[in-house]
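Action item from last week, closing it out:
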Amino acid sequence: MSDRIELRGLRQAALVGALPEEAERKQPIEVDIDVEVDLAAAGQSDALGDTVDYGMLCDVVETVIDEGHVQLLERLAQLIADRVVATDTRITCVEVAVRKLRPPVPQDLATSGVRIRRDRA
C-alpha cells in the first residue's frame, strides 16, 4: 500500500517518563502519525466517508495521552498505534513517532523519541 494519511507535529502535555517528577508534572511531547489506507475511493468521490477522518485520529491520540502516566515513550507509541488501528478497519498499518520536546538529560538534546510501525494483525 502506498497511500497514506500523514499527521505531523501534534503537540500536547503528557505524563510520560521514568523519573519520579515525570509522573507528577506534564511535559510537552510531539506525535506524528502515518496511516496506510486505500485513498482511491476518496480521490474519486471527494467524500469524507471514503477516507479516514484525520480530526478523529487527532482526538484518538489526545485521548490516549490524557488517560494517564506511562513510563516509556515506547509504551505510549504502542497505545496510540493500537487505538488508531482499532478506529477503522480500512487502516492496514500505522506508524507512530513520539518525541519529548524537553528531554530530562544534562546534554543539549533537542528531542528524544521513538518511532514504531504496526500492521493490522
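Closing note: The chain has one domain: 4-119.
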